[in-house]
Specification:
Distance between the termini of chain A: 9 Å
Radius of gyration of chain A: 16 Å
Number of helices of chain A: 5
Strand content of chain A: 25-35%
Number of strands of chain A: 11
Largest interface: A-B, 42 and 42 residues
Strand order of the largest sheet of chain A: 5-4-8-9-10-11
Oligomer: homodimer
Largest sheet of chain A: 6 strands, mixed
Shape of chain A: globular
Structural class of chain A: alpha/beta
Helix content of chain A: 25-40%
Chain lengths: 193, 193
């Protein structure tokens, strides 16, 4: 998606060859007009899929999921990262490792909101190692929900998550795939799609 | 807002005289059509305010903030609940106490995304004791931002947060104010507004 690549080139900050900051428009301040344009692309790309739910994980995915769900006209569900006393016991639970924060999280979705009748589009801001995505896919598997596809804003193409998921047969629709970044020049190479 | 009150009566679950669950449409599964209707009410109520930014706190506020920001045509910023290694050091930081989770959080907003030129609408899903809101207001104060108003989905009118904020002079636009709840009958009394 050219708009997103241009925006990453303009406002993204390459902190190292592995770390790209997009906090001015995606995951701290949110440019919701951009989110809407992203949602339109996914809506077109998944026009033939019977998607009835958008699934993401807190926190950075929630804003994108809300705008995408609006575009699709379906509800969104966000997986929670720790047991809240306000969640009932009847939940799907899995563990994910966060490389960003260097710890393991419990990830939880209430059984009320995901089941065999659900056709899910999973969305998230980043795909790198794919640990968060593996957790969400695990929850969908246990719930019996059908994963129609995975929509990612920024995929780090030099990390294994995307390849791994595509090899498993998932449709991974990443709107920008970064193949390499240079923290000296702030130059970013995107994969031709 | 009658639509929200009706929805709370239909799908809300009174867990105790203090705890109301709205996780099927607000803070776990999100009914984004409802969010849009809520956003329209705030857009009308704050039509004369020069709002250029929507501010909330992760995680439950983010979906609402994204939809509200879309309606206002402005960016949204969500405060983060703990120091992430991907956040630069230049941040506003305050501490808030969560009664729900029984712990104290660091709350952080990057200085890049809030400053004296900002006219902010703060939104959140719940207002009870007002601890999270006090934290966001503290950050706005230090940033020199103008708080044009506070939009709340569900205010617990039997807890002191709303009164306290109104006494301080803030415009608190709560779309549903629960004055009392009965966990035996699931009956909810809303304040006439």
């Amino acid at each position: 998606m050219k708009e997103l690549e241009d925006r990453i080139r303009r406002d993204g900050v390459v902190k190292s060859s592995q770390v790209l900051k997009v906090d001015s428009f995606i995951n701290h301040q949110m440019d919701v007009e951009l989110f809407r344009d992203m949602a339109k692309v996914w809506h077109k790309d998944f026009a033939d899929a019977p998607i009835n739910k958008v699934l993401t994980i807190e926190a950075s995915g929630i804003g994108i999921a809300a705008v995408v769900a609006t575009e699709f006209g379906v509800p969104a569900v966000f997986a929670k990262k720790s047991q809240s006393i306000n969640l009932d016991g009847d939940v799907y639970c899995t563990k994910i490792k966060s490389f960003t924060h260097g710890r393991v999280y419990d990830v939880i979705v209430s059984k009320k909101f995901l089941g065999p009748n659900d056709h899910v589009l999973i969305v998230d801001d980043f795909l790198a190692n794919g640990c968060a995505m593996d957790g969400l896919l695990d929850i969908c598997r246990v719930a019996g929900a059908t994963v129609e596809g995975i929509g990612i804003a920024v995929e780090k193409g030099f990390q294994p998550g995307g390849k791994h998921l595509r090899d498993e047969g998932y449709i991974v629709d990443s709107l920008a795939i970064v193949d390499s970044m240079d923290p000296q020049t702030n130059e970013i190479e995107f994969r031709h799609q």
